[in-house]
């Protein structure tokens, strides 16, 4: 597979022309205030699992609209420990706890949030429905409610992520003063949003993050999920302005401008799902001074895999 974007020297200076709406901050403040007023209940129960060397709790918390969202808490000790909150990639769900052993095995408490309405494209499934309908949409999640930021699917998912962070202090094994967020692809984009919107986050580690620089991504990416938007606009030719206005409220480049905590990114130069220039656009937008990006020149959307996770562990151990 060839490199899919600009030469690396140009990528390192790539910032992108991402315009954010004037009411970006009020929009998210109001969205979170509404969700917090409908807090929902946090419940924790021992998970049914054959794992014996780790403790797994099955958690339900109130997300967008106070609606129940599921999560796993996986830990090696009852004592509060530095905590990694993971958001899952496109089409996946929280799956089976046995799929998430690395962080807890390295001494962290690992919280894995389910993805509302997703969980049936790969992995072992999800357990959180999305009870909201949508107007006409292209198959997938990218265009659900896309003509209005108030009804857009990713508004709900981002609010879920921040509401989980709001309630971490009630969960077993969590040190609320040492919280990091991470995720691959969609999960990386959600991690950037969460790091911008939640004051509890102390570090962010997005891998090959999705949801960055939407205009460039939709116009140039040739694969799903971005081409769901392109296919939608090929039918709804008169709705381009409304669609990109909605996407401007969830663009991770705008969230990155508000992130001041340490950040460790990864990018694959042969990635044809998330273009490297869009990752660099978010990375270069960071307000954080403690930032680093690992470049994998001959990898695609897999990024650095386990090798990158080992870098993450060392980097994060130094910080939290």
UniProtKB/TrEMBL annotation:
SUPFAM superfamilies: alpha/beta-Hydrolases (SSF53474). InterPro entries: AB_hydrolase_fold, AXE1_dom, CE7. Residues 1-317 form the Acetyl xylan esterase domain. GO terms for biological process: polysaccharide metabolic process. Coiled coil: none annotated. Signal peptide: none annotated. It comes from the Eukaryota. GO terms for molecular function: carboxylic ester hydrolase activity. PANTHER family: CEPHALOSPORIN-C DEACETYLASE. This is Acetyl xylan esterase domain-containing protein. It comes from Rhynchospora breviuscula. The lineage of its organism: Eukaryota, Viridiplantae, Streptophyta, Embryophyta, Tracheophyta.
